[in-house]
Design a protein that fits this description.
Length: about 250
């Protein structure tokens, strides 16, 4: 009897920026456990008196399991945000790399549930494109346990399939306060957590490619219809019984 080894599921991460690739690559979440957690003393039980025992978060299976899952995209450049006070729609930003950009979706996109005068919406244009070798959904989350580095920015969650969508842009909201806010986000801070919603093992590959190949892959994200274009792409590929064929490595 002949057994054929199944091909592993691979999440391929592409950037055309050498600075991003070399200094702040996408990594396994297990590589981003906060330093404060590592510095906690090892729990121990030496007696009946509470003062003789050490208990802390290192006993929490929820914490350790969380960091054992998925992949982290770190912020690739220092970022300063200046958010105008409540009742205004002012905001400014500056990246240290002098080239990254932020796009804004106005309040009417949510029916003004999150009014521009109450919240500032931002979308960080990510220098990474993802491509998965199988149609697997990924839960995209704000990295937890980095409150001291991300607050008051709130990154909104989503679910993505990186066979028909390749973008990894980060959408976030900042609630306006009575006074202007100046927020500093440090390069290297985990900014987006991707958890594969599958029992299959997903391997990570990180690639530096030419700008031409990067742009060709980015164009695969273009809408092919006016509505529900990702669903339409899935339908087309399913009918053809073939995966998305472009590979930025070749």
């Amino acid at each position: 009897m002949i057994f054929f080894k199944k091909k592993p599921v691979v999440l391929k991460c592409y950037t055309d920026r050498a600075d991003v690739y070399n200094y702040f690559p996408v990594v396994k979440a297990s590589k981003t456990i906060p330093e404060w957690f590592k510095n906690l003393p090892r729990p121990k039980y030496t007696g009946l008196k509470k003062t003789e025992n050490i208990r802390n978060l290192k006993e929490c299976i929820g914490f350790t399991n969380y960091f054992a899952k998925g992949f982290m995209l770190p912020l690739w450049s220092d970022l300063i945000l200046e958010i105008g006070e409540k009742g205004t729609d002012r905001y400014r930003y500056q990246y240290s790399d002098q080239r990254s950009e932020i796009v804004v979706h106005p309040g009417h996109t949510t029916g003004n549930t999150f009014s521009d005068l109450e919240y500032q919406e931002i979308k960080l244009s990510s220098p990474w494109l993802f491509q998965c070798t199988e149609s697997i959904e990924f839960m995209c989350l704000q990295p937890e346990w980095f409150l001291d580095k991300i607050f008051p920015v709130h990154i909104v969650a989503g679910v993505m399939d990186f066979t028909t969508n390749v973008a990894t842009n980060i959408n976030a909201y900042i609630k306006r306060t009575e006074e202007e806010q100046n927020i500093f986000l440090q390069a290297g801070t985990p900014i987006y957590h991707f958890i594969p919603l599958t029992e299959k093992k997903v391997q990570l590959e990180v690639h530096l490619v030419t700008t031409e190949k990067f742009q060709n892959l980015y164009l695969s994200n273009s809408p092919v219809t006016f509505r529900r274009h990702h669903a339409k792409k899935h339908k087309i590929l399913k009918e053809k019984k073939c995966p998305f064929k472009f590979d930025a490595e070749n």
